[in-house]
Each structure stands twice: as structure tokens, then as C-alpha cells.
Amino acid sequence: MSYSFLQHYWCFIVALLGALLVFLLFVQGANSLARSLGYTEEGRRLVYNSTGRKWELTFTTLVTFGGAFFASYPLFYSTSFGGAYWLWMAILFTFVVQAVSYEFQNKIGNIVGPRTFQFCLTLNGILGPLLLGGAVATFFEGSNFIVAKENLLALPGEAGGGSVVISSWANASHGLDALLNPWVLVLGFAVVFLARVLGILYVMNNVDDEDIRSRGSVRLVGAAVPFVVLFVAYLVHVLTKDGFAYTDEGLIYMEPYKYLHNFIDMWYLSVLLLVGVVLVLFGIGKTIVSKNYIGGIWPAGIGTVLTVLALLLCTAWNHTAYYPSTADLQSSLTMVNSCSSEFTLRTMFYVSLLIPFVLAYIIYAWRAMDSKKLDRKELAESHHTY
Amino acid sequence: MMTFLSAVDWARAQFALTAIFHWLFVPLTLGLGLIMSVIETKYYRSGDAFWRRAAQFWQRLFGINFAMGVATGIILEFEFGTNWSNYSWFVGDIFGAPLAIEGIVAFFMESTFVAVMYFGWEKVSRGFHLASTWLTWIGATISAWWILVANSWMQYPVGCAFNPDTMRHEMVSFWQVAFSPFAVDKFLHTVISAWVIGAVFVVAVSAWYLLKRREAEREMALKSLRIGAIVGLIASVGAAVTGDESAYKVAQVQPMKLAAMEALYDGGNDVSLTGVAWVNPFEQPNYKEEHEAPLRLAVPNGLSLLATRSWHGYVPGVNDILKGYTREDGTREPSAQEKMARGRAAIQALADYRRAKNEGASEDEAAAYKQVLMDNFQYFGYGYIRDESELVPYIPVNFWAFRIMVGLGTLFILFFAYILFLNWKRRPTASGSVYPRWLLVAAIVLLPCAYICSESGWLVAEFGRQPWTIQDMLPVTASVSDIGSSAVATTFWLFLVLFTAMLVVEINIMLKQIKRGMKEVKSEK
């Protein structure tokens, strides 16, 4: 295993975790629609209890995504989290309030009332995907940061001895400036509507309730149309925009149609993207036209993973700077200049061999748990409900 | 106040706030997780529906607590990046790995099987459910292992080497990092002490039912109390043993922390172990002028024995460490000033090396700078220290937190031992219980004490290593992110309000659930 292979491998693992995270945002999507999808109090409880059994998987994937990024690309971790401070803090805030909302909302002794926590779930359901989508968009659009490793050599008390911090944000907004870029918002809202699409498909599959399923079919159109429009718009934008490339010597430069070139050069990513998009559309389309079809979450979910994986890999592979700096082009982060040492990547490679085992027990456990769909009877009789 | 504190202070305060809140919930997850797994095992083995209901009762309380642990935990991981970006870069090559492994190995196990534990009673077999309950606890314990490996590495950095070309530390031995003796001790002491909290919690809740003479919960309370006391006694004795070993390790690798814990200003041979002394909690003592803290009551030769495993061993005090001292094996520990000078020399050599490389100077010239760097690298972090007083942690916090931890820990041993003694003797009181009323009241009073004890241990571990983020390598002042203090202060207050509100709701829900008791637990179909 060469260092280059390990860099590509870890890029793949991080991108895969990111893609799985976007798929698992169905929890957020369904929560953002719980009121209209559930309609009645009991219906809402069904939605919350359905997503409530999976929320920890989304949460865990987010944490593992962060951990894997930290271990394999520490310079990204330090630059993005320490720089785009407000953006990440806002994301964290919405996930923190979500974490307790399920457990607390309907418990006796909840002094702030169930609506407070339901509001938190809705807030997380909208802002979580929007901000995460916005963060992903910065991989294509760039961010305002500067990396100066020599700062670490500033001695205290000496003339010119200033900040020792190597990564700094070039303006005072600390990440919020990303939301001023309309294309960041386009992808952010595309992810919001994708999460809603997936959330509806998941609830229709997981909850055995005719009212919710029939409402889901209708709501699906309302979520799918804006998603497709925003996604196609962003895809066209990405394929036609200049991208951030680097030479073998590590010099960063702007390349016209870089991402289009990437999809041409890496044809397998194009296939992945195409298959992914077709699967998502198939899952949506068949659910809308077929009254009895409730398995749309599977093709749409797999399609989401493939699509996001292809897009994320397109930002990093093929000599592409995955975290570009618009403040100082040469500060842009690439797979090569921001990764961990070969030893760490190799060690983590062996650890990552556990991932199939982890996936296997997750699938085994949830096949056993979901073999019977959630219904009103179970909600009334269950030992533990939200 | 916002303007008086620097970004470093606020970053430290925010991390401390998050960690303190997080550490309110994690120990109960680890401790109660063990006890409820034992109770469910009894159900699995006996098939008695009583044990099933008892397990479900404790799992309900576990769930309320668990959610808060998850909520506060996510921030901790990301705060390494948001608040300590320089640190994240400087040692991310080493520190990131345990966090990633924690996610892959532990979090997924925990999150998958905790859902089976909550919702799977009617959906999976008894064996599968029992396995899920144990795996939830094992996942939480593995998670503790990896985060404590990461924390231990910061206190005792091993298995790494500095790379001047990348300007960071890089891992050279995964096994040294993952199984450093410091990490093993820290894990054992921390996890075992978490079992104490779980045990005190179970005993306190059970005691309340017995005090209130709640017939519906009487059997569950009596049996749970006994299980809790057995776990509690084993754990509190185990915490004492592992704590002693931890203190010994601290003496070897963080002598300043030990000196602060003991308020030992001037060390020497035959040093006594302080029982109590007057150390003003609100100001740093004048350690340069005072020989020792006033009103000191001490165990002769105790500290020498604890720190060196010899009655007459040499233990350095704060002033010895600042001035430099000679160890018993004849090796000399340099003074703080010498370390600071050598640290600056290392930083300057690194700057010269980088310049020589960038300007295409000869290999020999670059190699010469590199040699200077490596000769002085042991004290690299001291180069960022402005004044030697920065090297002394805040002594009052360390001194009192250590005493509170040890004092309460000893009390728990006596408490659990007495409960089990009464249980063994089976002497009924007037109320029909084997436990006197005062003991049941004491059990409830001791619950907050268990949390105080646990948080005190955390304070000793983290305050005592100041000013270092990574011992001798990187001080907190060189670890921070480039964020204004007002930004960190704002999020500090936001999270303080949020966590406090969540804590109030959580405690209220927990109390109401306890009050409702077994009513909330549905009978087996």
C-alpha cells in the first residue's frame, strides 16, 4: 500500500461516511414534516417514534464522520472547525437539542412541554440538513481561510511575535459568509428537500398506517419537485464552473470545467452518479405512481449514497483541492497537503476493516427490529415510546 | 467580564463546562448499565417476570440519562477543532485516531443495541435482548477506553515523533499510544469509579422506596439495593487501588501535578502525605515564600511511599521543579528557566531548518539545524511559556479536589461495606427493613456526593496538567483557534444556558419517573 493509495482510500472512507450521513438525514427530513405527515397527535407520535428508533445512527455517523476526518485529514479539521466557527457551532447546536428531544418530549416531568422539544426536532430537521448541505457546498465553492504553518514559530514576547495559530479565517464572519453565496444555499436547500423526500419514503416504509402513507404520497411530490430542480441546478453549476486543481508539486490553480473534467477522467464516478440519480428518481417516481409501493426508501437511499459519494470524491480525487481557499489560493487543502502521516493512515486502514463487520451487525439488528412495521397498536403497548 | 478574559480562558472555560456536564451523565451510563445488565441476566437465567420488570425500570432511568450524555458528548469531539485548532493540527495525526476508532468500534455498537434494548422486548428473543443490553454497556465502556486513551496521551505523550518537515507530531507506534500504562490506569480508575456512581444511584433510589414504604417497589428496591451495594463495594475498593496506581504514575510523569495536589512547595526525602491543611481556595498560595501550607496534618513518609514506592523516596515540590533538582538515580531535572531557554532554542532551530529548506540551503546546514531542534525538542512546549509562574497549576483547586475525591471515595467503601454487613446479618429494624432509617437517608444524601467525588477527580486530572494541552509539548496558549474571545464567550453562555435548562428538565423527569416507580413498567404479555 503506497501513501497515495492510503490517501485515496481514506478520502473514500470519509466520503462514504458523508454519503451515509446524507442518507440518514431522512430522520431530520421526516421530523421537519412530522406535523403535516402525522396530522393528528397520534400520527405525529408515530412519525417521531419511527424516526426516534434511528436518530442515534444519524448522530453516530455524524460523529464518526468528524472523527474519521480528524484522523485522516487533521489540517481540514483544524482549519474548517476552528475557522468556520459559527457555521459548525450552529450545526452542533441543532443536533444537541435534537438528542434529548425524543426522550424528553412526552415524559412526565417535562416542565417545558412537549411542543418545545417538537420545535427542537423541527428546527434540527430544517437547519441540520441546510447547514450540512451548505458545508458540503464549500468543497466546491471555497472558503475564506488562510493557512500559515510558520505562525507556529512565533516566539512569545519577541518583536513580530504575533499569533501562533496556523489556520485563520480571513474575515470576522467565521463561516457565516458561506451562506451569502447563493450556490451554497442552493445545495443547502437541495439537501433539505432531499432529506424530506427520504424522510417521507422512510416513514411510509416503516410505519404501518394508511393515513400516513396516503399523506406521504402527496407530500412526496411537494418535496421531490424542489429537490430535483435545486439539485439539477447545482449539478449544472458544478459541471460548468471553474475548479480548484493542483500540480504534482502542490501548486494550486484554477482550472476551467475542472469538475466536468473530473467526471470525464474518472468515468466510474460518472457511472456512480448516474446510477445514483436514476435510483433516487426511481424510488420517488414509483412511490408516487404506485399506490401499494412502500419500498422507495431503498432505491432512493442507495441512490443518495452513490450520488453523494460520487460528488464528494469529485471534489478531492484527480488532483483537486477539496477544501479550496478563496482568500489565498495556495492555502487550499488537498488530499496530499492535509492528510495524516503514512503510518497513521495505514494503522487506520486496518481499523477500517472492521467497518463491514459493523455494517453487518447493524443490518442484522435492524432486520430483526423492523420485521414488523410500527403501528398504533405497538405504540399503545410498547414498553418504551417517545 | 467578557473583555477581561482571553480567548484561551474562554476556550478552556467552554471545554471545562462541556466536559463537566458530559461527565455528569457518562458515569451513570457506565455504572447503571452494568447493574441493569446484571439484573436482566437474572431474568434471563430465572425466567422470573419480577427481574424483567426490574430491568425495565432501571433501563427507563438509564434512557433519560443516556440522551443527555449523547447530547453533551458530540460537542466535546468537535470542540477540539472549533476551540483548539492549533492543537488539532499539531497532534491530529495521533489524537484523531482514537476518536475515529471510538466512532467506528464503540458508538455504532452503542447506538444500535441501545435501540434494541429499548424497543426490542417484544421483537427479539430473550437472549438477543440480553446480548443487546450487555453490548450497550460494552459499547459505552469501549468508548470510554478510546477517549481515555486520547486523554492519557495528552498527559503522557508516547508512541510519537516530531516531523520538522510537516511541523507536527506523528504516530510511530499505535500500540504504545493505545496501551500506554498511563491509559490503562486512567481507564481502570475512571470506569471503575463510574460503577461507584451507578451503585450509589441504584442504592439511593432503592433507599427512597424503602423510606417511603412503597409496597409496589419494596422487593425491587431490596434486591436492587443489594446488587448495587455489591457492585459499589467492589468498585469503590477497585477505585482506591487503581487511584493509588494512577497517583504513582502522575508522580513519575507529571510531578508538578502531584506537587499541586499535595500543596507541596518544597520537596525532599521522607515526605509526608497531607491529610488536611489550610490552603485558601480563592487564591494561589505564595509557594515561593511559604515552606508548607499552614495547619498541616500529615501521614509521615506517606507521600514518599505513594510517589516512589519507598518510605524514604525523593518527591520534588513546586519550587524544586521550578529551580531544577537531582533525582535519586543521579539524573538532573533542569530548571524551568533552562527548559524555557531550550524550548526557544528548539523553536528557533525549527524556524532555521524551515528557512534553510525553503531557500535550498545545503543538506548539511539543514541537518545541523535539525540536530539542534532534536537536542532540545524535549522542551519544545516550554518555548511558548512567557513566565515560569505559568508552569504552576492553580494549587487550591488541585489540593481540595483531590481531598474531596479521596475522602468521599473512602466514605463509599465504608458505606457499601456496612450495607452488606447488615444484609449479611439480616437484623430487621422496627420498620421491617434490614436497614436503619438513618442509613437510607444517608444513601440519598450520598448521591450528590458521588457526583461531587467524580467531578473532583476530573478537576484533579485536568487542572493539574495546566498549562499543558500536551505535557511539555504544547501549552494551551499555543493550542487555541484564531477566534475572538467574544465569539467563544457567546457560545459559552449559550451552551451554559442550554445545558442548564436540559439538566433541570432531565432531573425533573428523572424524579417523576422514580416517583411513579413500577407503575410505568408494563407487565409482560
Overall spatial form of chain A: globular
Write the H/E string of chain A, N to C: HHHHHHHHEEHHEEHHHEEHHH
Cα end-to-end separation of chain B: 59 Å
Q: Spans of chain A with pLDDT under 50 lasting ≥5 residues?
A: none
Series of secondary-structure elements of chain B, N-terminal to C-terminal: HHHHEEHHHHEEHHEEHHHHEEH
Mean pLDDT of chain A: 92
State the total count of DSSP E strands of chain B: 8
Care to describe what's here?
The complex is a heterodimer of chains A (386) and B (525). Chain A has one domain. Chain A is mainly alpha-helical and 386 residues long. Chain A is globular. Helices cover 68% and strands 5% of the residues of chain A. The mean pLDDT of chain A is 92. In chain A, a hairpin with a 5-residue loop joins strand 3 and strand 4. Chain B is mainly alpha-helical and 525 residues long. Chain B folds into 3 domains: 376 residues, no CATH class; 74 residues, no CATH class; 49 residues. Chain B contains 15 helices and 8 strands. Chain B has a two-stranded antiparallel ribbon. In chain B, strands 3-4 form a two-stranded antiparallel sheet. In chain B, strands 5-6 form a two-stranded antiparallel sheet. In chain B, strand 1 and strand 2 form a beta hairpin. Chain B is globular. The interface between A and B is large, with 84 and 103 residues.
Which tags fit this structure?
heterodimer, A: 386 residues, mainly alpha, two-stranded antiparallel ribbon, two-stranded antiparallel sheet, 16 helices, 68% helix, 5% strand, B: 525 residues, 15 helices, 8 strands, 69% helix, globular
Brief description of this entry?
Chain A is 68% helix and 5% strand.
